[in-house]
C-alpha cells in the first residue's frame, strides 16, 4: 500500500514524500510538477504516453496540465519519491520571463539530469522532512535552493519567447470552455459528471472534449478530477474535517469510493495523508 510519509505546504504549493508500491491513474495538475527519487528502486512514469525513467540521476519534470501516470513494477521493491507540486506564480519568481506568460509550457522535455548539487538538495530536503516533521523556514529555504537550481538547469529561454500569434492563441478560451471551467470550479460534485456538464454548457460531449484538448491539452474528465483532488487535499489536511462530509460534498456515492479516488490520485489514503501533513 502506497503512503504519504510527509507533506509540507505553503505559498510554493506542496511537497510530498511518498512511499510508492502501486500505480497511480492518469491525471494532471495545474501545478508545475517535479518528481525525484529519494530512495528505493528505479521506476518510471508515463507522460503523454511516453515512458520517462526515474532514477538516482534522472528526475521527471512536467508542465502544468501534462497528463501522466505512475506505473509501478510489482516485482520491484517500493520507491520513495519526493514529489513537488509547485504553484506557477511562485515559480515565476525564479524565471522572470515566465511572469508575463503564466500558461507557457516552460519545459521542452520531461527528463532532467540531476547533478551532484541537485541530489544533495534532494537528500537534504527529504531528511529534513522526516527528521523534523514540524514545518519551518528551513524547509522552505531548502526547497527554494533546489527549485532555483533545477529551473536554472532546465529552462529553455527559446521556449518562453513565443510569437505574438502564439500568445494570442494560447490566451483565448472559447466561451463553452470558459463556462465549463467555471462550472467545474464552482460545483465539482455536480459537474464532474460530464453528461451534466455538456447539458449545462449546451454542446455535445465530442465537441467539448475536442475544445478541451485543443485549449488545455486534457479532456474535461481529467480537469474535473484535478479540481476534485485539489479540493479534497485542501479539506483533508484540516484536522477537524469529517471524511464522510468530504465524500458527500465532492459527490462520491460512498466514503470508500472517495478513499479509493484519493489514493489513486494522491498516492495515499486520506487518513494517512492527514497524519503526514506537517503543521
UniProtKB/TrEMBL annotation:
This is HTH araC/xylS-type domain-containing protein. Keywords: DNA-binding, Transcription, Transcription regulation. Residues 178-276 form the HTH araC/xylS-type domain. It comes from the Bacteria. One of its GO terms (molecular function) is DNA-binding transcription factor activity. InterPro entries: AraC-bd, AraC_XylS_family_regulators, Homeodomain-like_sf, HTH-like, HTH_AraC.
Amino acid at each position: 500500500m502506497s503512503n504519504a510519509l510527509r507533506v509540507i505546504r505553503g505559498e510554493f504549493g506542496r511537497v510530498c514524500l511518498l512511499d510508492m508500491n502501486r500505480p497511480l491513474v492518469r491525471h494532471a495538475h495545474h501545478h508545475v510538477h517535479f518528481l525525484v527519487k529519494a530512495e528505493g528502486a528505479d521506476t518510471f512514469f508515463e507522460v503523454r504516453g511516453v515512458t520517462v525513467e526515474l532514477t538516482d540521476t534522472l528526475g521527471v519534470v512536467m508542465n502544468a496540465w501534462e497528463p501522466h501516470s505512475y506505473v509501478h513494477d510489482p516485482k520491484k521493491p517500493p520507491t520513495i519519491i519526493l514529489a513537488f507540486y509547485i504553484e506557477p506564480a511562485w515559480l515565476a519568481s525564479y524565471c522572470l520571463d515566465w511572469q508575463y506568460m503564466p500558461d507557457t509550457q516552460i519545459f521542452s522535455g520531461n527528463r532532467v539530469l540531476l547533478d551532484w548539487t541537485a541530489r544533495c538538495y534532494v537528500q537534504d530536503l527529504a531528511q529534513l522532512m522526516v527528521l523534523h516533521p514540524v514545518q519551518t523556514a528551513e524547509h522552505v529555504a531548502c526547497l527554494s535552493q533546489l527549485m532555483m537550481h533545477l529551473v536554472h538547469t532546465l529552462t529553455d529561454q527559446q521556449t518562453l519567447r513565443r510569437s505574438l500569434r502564439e500568445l494570442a492563441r494560447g490566451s483565448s478560451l472559447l466561451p463553452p470552455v470558459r463556462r465549463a471551467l467555471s462550472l467545474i470550479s464552482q460545483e465539482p460534485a455536480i459537474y464532474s459528471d460530464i453528461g451534466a456538464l455538456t447539458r449545462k454548457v449546451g454542446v455535445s460531449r465530442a465537441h467539448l472534449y475536442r475544445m478541451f484538448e485543443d485549449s488545455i491539452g486534457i479532456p474535461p474528465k481529467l480537469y474535473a478530477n484535478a479540481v476534485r483532488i485539489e479540493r479534497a487535499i485542501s479539506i483533508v489536511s484540516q484536522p477537524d474535517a469529517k471524511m464522510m462530509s468530504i465524500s458527500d460534498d465532492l459527490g462520491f456515492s460512498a466514503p470508500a469510493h472517495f478513499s479509493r479516488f484519493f489514493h489513486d490520485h494522491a498516492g495515499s489514503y486520506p487518513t494517512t495523508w492527514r497524519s503526514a501533513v506537517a503543521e
